[in-house]
Amino acid sequence: MASSDSKLLAVLGPTNTGKTHLAIERMCAHSSGMIGFPLRLLAREVYDRVVRIKGERSVALITGEEKILPPEARWFLTTAESMPLDRDFAFVGLDEAQLGADPNRGHVFTDRLLRARGREETMILGSDALRPMLKALTPDADIISRPRFSTLSFAGSTKLSRLPPRSAIVAFSAEEVYAVAEMLRRFRGGAAVVMGALSPRTRNAQVAMFQAGEVDYLVATDAIGMGLNMDVTHVAFASLRKYDGKRQRRLTVAEMAQIAGRAGRHQRDGTFGTLSMEGSRGAAFEEEEVHAIEEHRFPPLEQLYWRDGQPRTDSVDTLIADLERKPDHRVLRSAPEAIDLAVLKRLAEEPWVRDRTRGDRMVRRLWSACGLPDFRKTGVDPHSRLVGRVYRHLTEGEGYLPAPWFAEELARLDNVQGDVETIADRIAGVRTWAYIAHRPDWLADPAKWAERTRELEERLSDALHQRLTQRFVDRRTAVLMRDLGARGIDALPVAIDDAGIVSVADEPIGRLEGFRFHVDPDAKLLDKKRLLAAAERRLGDTLGGRARLLAADPDDQFTLATDPGRPVAIFWRGDVVARLERGRTVLSPRIVLHRALDLLRTPDRILVEDRLIAWLMTTVDRVLRPLSAIATAATDPARPAQLRALLAPLVDAGGTIERATIAPTVAALDRDGRRAAQALGVRIGTMDVFHTGLLKPEPMRWRLALAAIRSGETMPGCPPAGSVTVALPEAEPDRTAYHRAGYRPLGGQMLRVDMIERLARIAHDGRPDAKGGRAAFVPDPALATSLGLAPDGFDRLMHILGFRAAAEGWAWRGRRADTAPAPAAPPRPGNMFGALAALKANNV
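and the corresponding structure tokens:
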């Protein structure tokens, strides 16, 4: 209770005047004291400061959702709504008292301004706009003006990419905060996020990142304007409009100044301006607004909102009447209907509420329940249902909320999984139950449940901080951008560990595989050029060492990469080092080093090229030895011309060629020439000329790769390794590749050329008169069946080999179908060779 000689002091001025610091000093100089703040976050911040001065046992914190109340506490830090006005303190302070003009919470601040008094001293802190209200309502107050310590200047509009470090960007919705923070992550490495809905634990963790320099940017709602102390040099407004609970409106000049004033600390100057967003005109200050903010001149307040702070509670109707009573002072105006009054009036319409609310005690209990804040912003109707359920429990049995119900509601929220929005919503839900747990007579064991809600809020707060950091902070880019600005790219501390992890200032930015630097896949597209530049400019020595390691490695460390649809390349230790292009001959393609090796010095490049050429020549000679021997013979002038005429196109074709395409050359080859070809392993078959050794899987892969290189194409698909019969590919490029590999189409299938020759030999040897007779016969189907050749494929092969369908089976026609592909054989029902009746019906 204030004594007659109690001092009433009002300290007014713009932000950055040290008003809060002065109030803390004055409070701590008294034997006891209390300060009411506009935000839970600010109350917690000042509580931590006073604890460092007075110790934990002497300091209390009281907010709606948090209560730290040691038995010996003498200094209290609270929110304005939670100020215990029934306690006696030597000192009482009220921060941001100009909020009495706020339509939503103004009546609370006006009530505290009029009723909260210290026994020895009362201090009201606010802006100069509050001066006429104080003179009208508290004429005995001594008013002191505090000048701003530093200069606040307008800096105009700034693009996001050009924001100076230590900037705070202010937005007026969670969606806008998240959007700006995401863009800052992409362009500048990230930002801390501060919103009024965050728990103190999350907010402190986010601010700690900013204060420690882990990020250079802070994105916040207008909660930043309420005295939260951070090292900010520039404030950028993402918007100048906000939703005030009823409508979208432009900020008042006083609100603009309150937020802009966060720039600069003590005697260090600050700047403010707007954020220029790409594709949008963005916010813009009027010239008069800029002048008023810079000069700290604002229109004086003409009224404050008021509601009876001590309503009568003898009945529900009396309570409502007092809460709706109009003020009797000319500068006071009736407060708009707040949600607690709206809920009270809604519940008062319920007969069961009327029946249970009789007498002073129960009316006060109902009004206390209606004071449960709508933390989740659900609106009057849903919130009324929750309050009604709470009040029903408070008026039944022993008058406590059922512990199982309370525990069940907490259990629903006890989940740290989910995104930022999901976890933030759970924290809002926990705040509801924390508020309930801190009511002294709503639970049978309030201390137990207060501790449970505190632990749950802390877990969720830690998870929310983690999600915010994951979503809006790229530490790698933040470090890179900071070091680029401080040192320049050539001075960046780049390190590479034994696993190839590349780091800049201890932040991993990618991996070195072979000679290629792979940017971390989580890096945004806009970051990658910076990361590449930072790494590649500093990797010369490391790459030189790898070049020497490559030159000394054995052949088994190199492979030919033949991924379908990609250029043929050489890999070293699992990573690409070169690609192959058309060379002088099929067997000698040209090696082109990968561009990642451009950073090598010339001697190291030559060393790598020589080693790759040596490996390629050795491997071609080993894997394609038959083709190398044929190629050597084809250019040997000592060989007969007829033989070289056969071998040269065979080499160009990669070791297999259709006999029909070189029929004159085969016909001109004499017996000695055939023997010489046979000595080289060349087989002149019924349909093809080929070397059997080149039909194995690995030689086949290399032959297709060399053919693709020769024609300037990417690597085609290879037939399945070891397959004799394959399905006819649908795509023309694949059919061409299979043909090069040594497969020939037979209906809907392709058969390898050596198997075609084998079937051809069996068919001709099985004729009744192999010397030229034309009697019909039925071939043994066992081999064709074992090869997986379908009936229509076998029929086509028999036709190509010179047989014709006859009544008794197949008859020799006297010639091969060398010059044209055979027509598709008609379908044959029954066994693999069909019914002769079907052949006759089709005039075959």
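(Above: one complete record from the training split.) The longest helix spans residues 446-472.
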